[in-house]
Amino acid sequence: MTSFAERKKPISPEWDPWDAWYTRSKEGRYRLTSVEFTVTNLCNLRCEHCAVGEALVEKEGVSLPVEQLIRQLEKVEDLQTLSITGGEPIVNRHVVDNTIRPLLQYAKQRGIYTQLNSNLTLPLSRYEDWIEDIDVLHISYNYRDEADFQRMAFANANHQPSATLTNRLFQRLKDNAIVLSKAGVFISAETFLSPFTAPHLPHMHKEIAEMGCKRHEVHPLYPSDFAKGMKLLSVDEYKAAIENLLNDRDPAIWILFGTLPIYPCSHHQSDQDLWLRLFHEPNITVRQDPDGRNRLNINAFTGDVIVTDFADVPPLGNIKTDSLTTIFDLWLDHPLAKKYHCYCPKAHCTGPNLLVANTYYQDVDFQARKAHISV
Ligand code: SF4
């Protein structure tokens, strides 16, 4: 008999199980198909752009029993993907052994796709004996060189580590990515676009390709937490950075544009043209925000459930008292969800992310707009 795991279709530009598009377009509504756990607020880095930022800690207690987390997952009938994030999920061995491994085993046995977010700077041995249970290893890559890494990865540290140490961490990140990619791990490397990273995007893309990563994710810088106050690109600068990458890319690498701040209801011809270009170029996808469209985030310590791991929306419930599907249905009725859950099927668009809309489109009523193009 074929196991659930064997029935999983490989992830590809044609099949991205985190994409809320499939349920919305097939069933006419969003469903909870994706759950993310924040399993730790410890991290060995203090990046300037960290969206967890002030929530990072030096010490933390014990999380809720994993059986309690799994009991909640059992009730989510449509569950398709499970994401694990932090902090740095791998930094605490107790978390790896008592939360991450059991969650991955559960997901494997149920045929659920998994993603783990890591900065990949820990020794390779810390990843080796469970990594085969991960479908996507998500890393951040926003650096041209060691100096960039040192400046960015410890911008919010109380004590600046030596260049020798930060150089070693940066090299380890790259070496780990190469070894794990060669071993068949699907690494998706994300670059955020800011006035600093945008001019160097093609260079970073090349390095990501050289490390063997299968996918390059490009997202806006989210002006949240540590990143509040960092300079952002204008929409025109964002478009220019994307065009620049498209003209100088490795066609073998899948590029995923996440939470793109450009929409087919724009009156600007250049926005419409770019949307069409992204849709029709091979090995390119646009994924609008899963948060709140098919995903909820659970804090594994408190049980609080939030709609995203960095938007300033207070917890919507808690797994000690509420079921995830009830919380999700409540969220779909929330005024913020109603405001941004617009949908233009002919243009393959499911509307903006909360942070992006707040940043770039404060005065726009998306419910009153419609796409001007069809893909
Ligand atoms: S779904 Fe929303 S953002 Fe997308 S084109 Fe339609 S109105 Fe604009």
From TrEMBL:
**Residue intervals of the Radical SAM core domain:** 27-256
- Which InterPro entries would you find in this protein's record? Aldolase_TIM, rSAM, rSAM_sf, rSAM_YfkAB, YfkB
Q: Which SUPFAM superfamilies match?
A: Radical SAM enzymes (SSF102114)
Residues of the signal sequence?
none
Q: Which domain of life is it from?
A: Bacteria
Which Pfam families does this UniProt record tie to the protein?
Answer: Radical_SAM (PF04055), YfkB (PF08756)
Record GO terms (molecular function): 4 iron, 4 sulfur cluster binding; catalytic activity; metal ion binding
Record-given protein name: Radical SAM/CxCxxxxC motif protein YfkAB
* Lineage summary: Bacteria, Bacillati, Bacillota, Bacilli, Bacillales
